[in-house]
Amino acid sequence: MPFDSHDSALAQGKPSDSPAVLAKIADAMRAEPDPRRAMELLVEILKRDMPAYTWVGIYLLEGDELVLGPFLGKPSPHTRIPLGRGICGAAAREKQTIVVDDVNADSRYLACSLETKSEIVVPIMIGTRVLGEIDIDSDRPAAFGDDDRRLLESVAAFLAPKLDPR
């Protein structure tokens, strides 16, 4: 059987089918009225369908802290993160996605697992208001590229209306 670029993408753990994953998540968000269950479904789909995503979680903003919500992966000691602390706190404060190719080279990284090599954090926002964020770790260095950023920013946009109490 010939080796093609699709096989190469899978071998590297890169998103080979981001549109299909996004479609699954969009369908789940439309079908699930309960915010907590919607977050759980989102985490399940990302963890199952994206091979490089070894830890997938959602933090919700409560006051000046990010509070860990649904997640899949090893337990995290960071269940509450003050705004501005760590990569998660920085992404929420800066209101922008942060990609870290090598967590050991970033002084903001709050160590959770010795196996973690890279991280992406995507704020969940309505307008300019941060509601929470999607936090994903990988055991592979530089695991997150432009496809991941686009996918996760779209996912955050689907989830945001579910989390908006207004």
Can you offer a commentary on this structure?
The protein is an alpha+beta fold. The chain has one domain: GAF domain (Beta-Lactamase), CATH 3.30.450.40. Helix content is 39%, strand content 25%. The chain is built from 5 helices and 6 strands; from the N terminus they run H-H-H-E-E-E-H-E-E-E-H. The chain has helices at residues 5-12, 18-31, 35-49, 86-94, 146-163; strands spanning 55-62, 65-72, 80-82, 98-100, 118-126, 129-138. It has a 6-stranded antiparallel β-sheet with strand order 3-2-1-6-5-4. Strand 5 (118-126) and strand 6 form a beta hairpin. Helix 2 (18-31) packs parallel to helix 5 (146-163). It is globular, with a radius of gyration of 15 Å. 35% of the residues are buried.
Please outline what is shown here.
This protein has 166 residues and is of the alpha+beta class.
Helix content: 25-40%
Classify the fold: give the CATH topology. Answer: Beta-Lactamase
Instruction: Please count the helical segments.
Output: 5
Oligomer kind:
single chain
Number of structural domains: 1
The main β sheet shows up as: 6 strands, antiparallel
- Apparent shape: globular
CATH homology superfamily name:
GAF domain
List how many beta strands DSSP finds. Answer: 6
What's the Cα radius of gyration? 15 Å
- How far the N terminus sits from the C terminus, by CA atoms, comes to 54 Å
What percent strand? 15-25%
Q: How would you classify the helix and strand content by structural class?
A: alpha+beta
Low-confidence stretches: 1-15
